[in-house]
């Protein structure tokens, strides 16, 4: 139905080049009481070659286009995504930005900046590139079209602490905002104040599981000994009460461990409850 919330299941693994992401996404969906309401996007399990400096390029392009087509067909008011790798946010962010021009800010909760291009990437894995492509740069088949591309001020990092040299240079040049984990944990109201200064009205939440502390979760491939807990996520959601949270994605986990899935289910529930 058009102009209603859309909840997508997008178990894309190719950006991480790790099939465990696909299987973990299915395990989490099966655990969720609302898992049956999720609209699935088909994801290939075939291995494809590297093109233009991007591993699994052809599959990523095909799946990106499917996501764009689904959004164009449904024209949802809100979009949530159960991923899948970090690239599952590409199509929803562009769609929401076009729907809400100049008022959307993306809160990117992640240890990493995900700002590489195929030329600067040390790995060729596209999970390190989505933000740069949301900004309309990078691979021509995967970057957001110019009319839908966000400006750098519309990306606000929460908890990022590992940057490649090219990413650090880009952040400095474009004066992008990075809040550390301690701000997120102790002073989430500072994030809300920053959004108000930007003139933001709408928020999209991108949550990479590697932002979670190993005391509650250890299934991202990038263990975090200084991360956040679901209680911290709850505090952030409270701080965002003055904004319309119009979308979000939970991404990049590879564990089917029961404790890890319970933590992810709690975070996903907090995220989806905030979308309104």
Key phrases:
276 residues; alpha/beta; Arginase, Chain A; eight-stranded parallel sheet; 9 helices
Question: What's the structural blueprint in terms of helices and strands?
Answer:
Blueprint: E1 6-10, H1 20-31, E2 39-40, H2 57-74, E3 79-83, H3 90-99, E4 104-109, H4 130-134, E5 155-158, H5 165-174, E6 177-179, H6 181-186, H7 188-198, E7 202-208, H8 230-239, E8 244-251, H9 258-274
Parallel strand pairs: 1-2, 1-3, 3-8, 4-5, 4-7, 5-6, 7-8
Structure in words:
The protein has 276 residues and is of the alpha/beta class. It has one domain (6-274): Ureohydrolase domain (Arginase, Chain A, 3-Layer(aba) Sandwich). Helices cover 36% and strands 14% of the residues. The chain contains nine helices and eight strands. It has helices at residues 20-31, 57-74, 90-99, 130-134, 165-174, 181-186, 188-198, 230-239, 258-274; strands at residues 6-10, 39-40, 79-83, 104-109, 155-158, 177-179, 202-208, 244-251. The protein has an eight-stranded parallel β-sheet, sandwiched between helices. Strand 7, helix 8 and strand 8 form a beta-alpha-beta unit. The radius of gyration is 17 Å and the shape is globular. It starts with 5 loop residues before the first strand and ends with a helix.
């Amino acid at each position: 139905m058009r102009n209603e919330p859309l909840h997508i299941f997008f178990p894309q693994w190719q950006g991480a080049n790790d099939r465990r992401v696909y299987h973990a996404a299915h395990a989490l969906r099966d655990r969720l009481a609302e898992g049956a309401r999720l609209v699935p996007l088909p994801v290939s399990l075939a291995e494809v070659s590297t093109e233009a400096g991007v591993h699994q390029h052809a599959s990523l392009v095909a799946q990106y286009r499917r996501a764009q087509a689904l959004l164009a067909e449904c024209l949802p008011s809100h979009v949530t995504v159960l991923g899948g790798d970090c690239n599952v946010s590409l199509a929803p962010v562009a769609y929401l930005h076009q729907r809400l021009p100049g008022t959307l800010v993306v809160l990117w909760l992640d240890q990493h900046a995900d700002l590489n291009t195929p030329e600067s990437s040390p790995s060729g894995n596209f999970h390190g590139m989505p933000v740069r492509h949301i900004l309309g740069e990078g691979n021509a088949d995967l970057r957001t079209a110019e009319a839908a591309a966000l400006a750098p001020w519309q990306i606000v990092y929460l908890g990022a602490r590992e940057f490649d040299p090219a990413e650090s240079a880009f952040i400095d040049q474009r004066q992008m905002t990075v809040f550390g984990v301690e701000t997120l944990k102790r002073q989430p109201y500072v994030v809300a104040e920053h959004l108000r200064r930007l003139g933001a009205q709408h928020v999209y939440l991108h949550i990479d599981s590697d932002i979670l502390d190993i005391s509650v979760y250890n299934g991202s491939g990038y263990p975090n000994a200084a991360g956040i807990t679901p209680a911290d996520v709850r505090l952030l959601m409270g701080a965002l009460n003055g904004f319309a949270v119009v979308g979000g994605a939970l991404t990049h986990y590879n564990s089917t461990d029961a404790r890890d899935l319970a933590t992810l289910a709690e975070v996903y529930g907090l995220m989806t409850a905030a979308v309104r």
